[in-house]
Amino acid sequence: MSTEFDVERIRKDFPVLSRELPGGRPLVYLDSGNSSQKPTQVIEVMREHLASHYANVGRAMHVLGAESTEAYEAARDKVATFVGAPDRDEIVFTKNASEALNLVAYAFGNPINEDPRFVMGPGDEIVISEMEHHSNIVPWQLLARRTGATLRWFSVTDEGRLDLSNLDELVTERTKIVSIAHQSNVLGTVNPVARVLARVRQVGALMMLDASQSVPHKPVDVAALGVDFLAFTGHKAVGPSGIGVLWARGELLSAMPPFMGGGEMIEAVWMDRSTYAPAPHKFEAGTPPIVEAIGLGAAVEYLSSIGVDAIAGHERELTRYALEALGEVPGLKVIGPRDLQDRGGTVSFTLEGIHPHDVGQILDDEFGVAVRVGHHCARPLHLRFGIPATTRASFYLYNTPAEIDALVRGLHHVRKVFA
Amino acid sequence: MIAESMYQELILEHYKHPQGRGLRDPFDNEVHHVNPTCGDEITMRVKVGEGGKVEDVSYDGQGCSISQAAASVLHELATGSTVEETLSVVEEFTRLMQGRGKVEPDEEILGDAVAFAGVAKFPARVKCALLAWMAYKDAVVRSA
Read out DSSP for A357-374? Predict the structure, then answer.
């Protein structure tokens, strides 16, 4: 595992990284927090499946059906191994992380779910945080509106850390579920799961992690984390879009009602009622994203072959380099932790007097530097910092210090244009 | 490259030194428009006097250089003209912005606003340029 991290070799796995942009600009892709690029190993597995093995899964009684089902279920095994799930049946394939979060929210306050842990009404509380992506805010707002429960949230400190000073007042016997980001998609902050979870257990609530920004970038072991639910998405982890994952403790999945009804999620159907298949199929109504799931299986295999520890180490070096280099751009303010402690490779910033849309436009158009600008689906967090938008650079296994140099050169030019 | 042509000197000048910025009295109508995708927003007041003459267009807001400069240019063009005249400029400006860079702008009608021609090639930025102009149209229509 201690072999040299060969970023140039890794870059060759990603065909898009060698393309030229219009005008002969090289591509500098610093937007992996938004969506990552795909290696040949994933593209080929998906192509091969479509070309030679494709059929519907779980219901076709022929060779292709068997091969397709086998590949689809093998992807589930790979994902289960990748996140340390104690049981493969605890991996539910969804469309994306948003669906996984909505699926869990839907299990609460649901008249067909009588498990006391999921019963929710006025007086009960849901706890999230101010640094959440909209996909970990809106499903809980909807739940609160459906049930009359109260939505509460952790604040964020000026340094971009979760404010735990009122942990005991916020998470109480009234709390049914706490759902927070494992790693912030704007600040890069990695949240102290163990501290929050200890309190959650004290009060007998459940805990969910939005791990969309952590699973692709660092070792995540659901058993070691000890939470109840965890959501992430394939497309940020060198896999395709259209496939996400919900991991949940098996006995909770058994207690939860189906999210969507349809084909393959049933055991038996009568005209007036149905019984349901056990998890995970109970939550996978209809023909699933077959090739996408298989692509995700290939993606996590690819990440494992590189070593997720090694990827985390590489990103850590990039982040160290970026924080230093960006610190020398006049008028630049990093929104989020400025040290490497509990922090991932996502750096958001403002440039004094220049709107992020102008920053992003010039970076892209003159330097081929792709960053994300705007509120990154985390508007409340931006409101908290009193800014409408930020520019965000996010790093992955294929990025290099030279690309951060290109970003910094671009930012100096942006300042010149708007001086 | 292409963006260079979008950030015309005139646009940067208006962004750095916005004309007529700040909300003023008296006014007939005030509107607030936002661009939900990028968070740009503008509050605009319009005062129309005798003979449909636009006496003042005042505004405040936040956003990128394109959206802010567009408001400043609009203030200059609209103030002192008749509502009817300004609406034909709004129409021509909208046609230019929605033309995907393929519309030949009518400089006679547009005046300084012709500087925004380059923005039309960037679909994501067209709504920045149009924010203030749509707010103006909305305010004027409500005043009528």
Answer: HHHHHHHHHHH-EE-EEE
